[in-house]
Amino acid sequence: MKINQYICGLLFAMISIHACAHDGHRPRIGAPNQQTPTGAPETWGTYCVTELAPLFREALTVYNQDNQLIDKPYGGQFPDIKKLQKSKDKSEPIFRAAVLPKIPYSPMPANSSADGKITVFTAKKIVTMDPGWPFATAVAVRDGRILSVGTLEDLKPWLDNNPYEINNSFADKVIYPGFIEAHGHPVMGGVAISLPPLTYYSLRNPYGPDFPGVKTPEEMVAKLKEYVAAAKTPDQTILTWGYDSVAMGKKKPTNIELDKISPTNPLILWDASEHFIFANSAAIKKYGVTNGQLAKTVGAGRNPDGTSNGQFLGAEAAKLIMLKPLSEVLNPKQGLYSLRYISALMQQAGITTTGDQFYGGVNLELENKLVKQVFGQPDSKARIVHVADGITFMGLYGNKAIDQAVALRQSGNDRIIFNGVKFFADDAFTSLGMQLEWPGYINPEQYKGLFMFNNKQDFLKAMRPWWNTGFQIHVHSNGSGGNQITLDSLEILQAEHPRFDHRFTLEHFGISSTAQGRQVKALGALVSTNPYFVSDRADINANQIGTDRASLAARMASLIDQDVVVALHSDTPVGVPSPLLEVWIAVNRVGNLSGKVHAPYERVRDVNKAMKMVTIDAAYALGLNDRLGSIETGKLADFVVLEEDPQDVRPMKIKDIGVVATILGGRPTLTSETRSPDWK
């Protein structure tokens, strides 16, 4: 026994030495020509929470001053880890390690009956995602959990000895485990996508026809005129979202063009980059933008006479015009509408559980109030899994951050779940703020990678105590440079404190190499990727990063072939939550603009494997595969009812399959029930 311990200790020591040497040999903070800057140039956008969150936080502060709703939240893009880890109580360690308890698993969810009666749902086909018992035609549910699955004959031992009822409502349909959104942003994403849209691609609307998208400046003008015509007053602010200046081309609108649309209604175009803003003169006047402010703000566009030209490019410039109108929609009433809006979208797409991969990043109190009303009620339509934003928790709670996260984990239930912690490596994919390894960007003067920490050592310091405590860590990592930093950091953490089944997850994994895929496998990590990087951006990004890298975005098949667990997600508002569309992209990899198949050898040719990416593998990535993701005895009775089986139709038809209903804890909701803003 002692010899074995000695050998293991020697091996881990050798691994540690190798990791340190490896780290010294490859001191990566991105490619050599991609140094971490102290601020973002005018040409950068983001399209992700890394920049959206500070804007929300400051807008909430504006709202707080007027209404005294909640405290000013912690903010900051480049965290000072040493400052955050500084303990006021010198008698305590910087972080107190805690024994990580299991996630609570209530015997009966609050949204099911307690009478012990069995309900049997029948279907033409039930696809269980349990490889040992893959198909069924009936599933028995009691107290919100799955009692048994098989045929009606298989269920007889239970039915012969207990009261039961048969629900044949879906007898001619197909049932799958409820879809799981592995990475979303319900609060922030809900606010963005519920505003009047100007998106380049079509956008789903839970309460009416889909928005078709605007592809030209002329279409954009026509849509804005519709919004102006629908305004209740001549001076009502029209705050829109999703104008895609990257996809539309280099020319950006000015106040001169926007004034022609409306000289009286304040018009604000919130770009898909999420920190580019375009405004007309009425908006500039209403929200008090002065020439003096413009003169000292990087990214604030000016005319020769010093007045605003209506362009506010970059986070600092965006604040000049955006904080007050955004604060107007970040009140509890509008926030509740937005969260219900995105919840309706999820229900209609078959989602029964969503990950919230930035919990606390906007404002804990507001988030908790909204989430409790939408996800925490007996008749809620979905569950939510909160993944704490590590930097926010460190800023709010200092040396008690981990203790606070552990307490939240213990306080959860089967509807509002707390599990894991999230950090950010590099910046966003869609606006090309991600870090790329050599050769970088084709136009390096226009696009530059951004690492979200001051250096890799701070990145490691931030993650280390959470890793050592046993938390599952998720890292937002987009470019090949960001992915390499993340993987090298995981290698060091594993050498210092080896862990099994840690489920360290690279979120997005946008641009990667085959070597990085191998390293993911070797280190036991997971990947949760965004398929919209292929369908929406590959056609656009080829001119900036090359055809091969643009097409290979969001690798899938090559990872799955190595038995790496891969989940799919939308990262709303990057994409609208739609698992069948995500599976369609994974299977076909077709560009929306060109119709070209991007990196055909990365297609997931086995549709069953693609469906696992939005069911059991998504549950695994959230650390919840013990209770979600498959239809097997003991798990929560969460299902999605489909018109057809995605495995039985032509691959190009998968995205068009109708979602009939969701079933949460044994309680069905038809998609037709959430088609109105008044849904219950």
Automatic annotation (TrEMBL):
<dbReference type="Pfam" id="PF07969">
    <property type="entry name" value="Amidohydro_3"/>
</dbReference>
<feature type="domain" description="Amidohydrolase 3">
    <location>
        <begin position="172"/>
        <end position="668"/>
    </location>
</feature>
<dbReference type="InterPro" id="IPR011059">
    <property type="entry name" value="Metal-dep_hydrolase_composite"/>
</dbReference>
<dbReference type="InterPro" id="IPR032466">
    <property type="entry name" value="Metal_Hydrolase"/>
</dbReference>
<feature type="signal peptide">
    <location>
        <begin position="1"/>
        <end position="21"/>
    </location>
</feature>
<protein>
    <recommendedName>
        <fullName>Amidohydrolase 3 domain-containing protein</fullName>
    </recommendedName>
</protein>
<keyword id="KW-0732">Signal</keyword>
<dbReference type="InterPro" id="IPR013108">
    <property type="entry name" value="Amidohydro_3"/>
</dbReference>
<dbReference type="InterPro" id="IPR033932">
    <property type="entry name" value="YtcJ-like"/>
</dbReference>
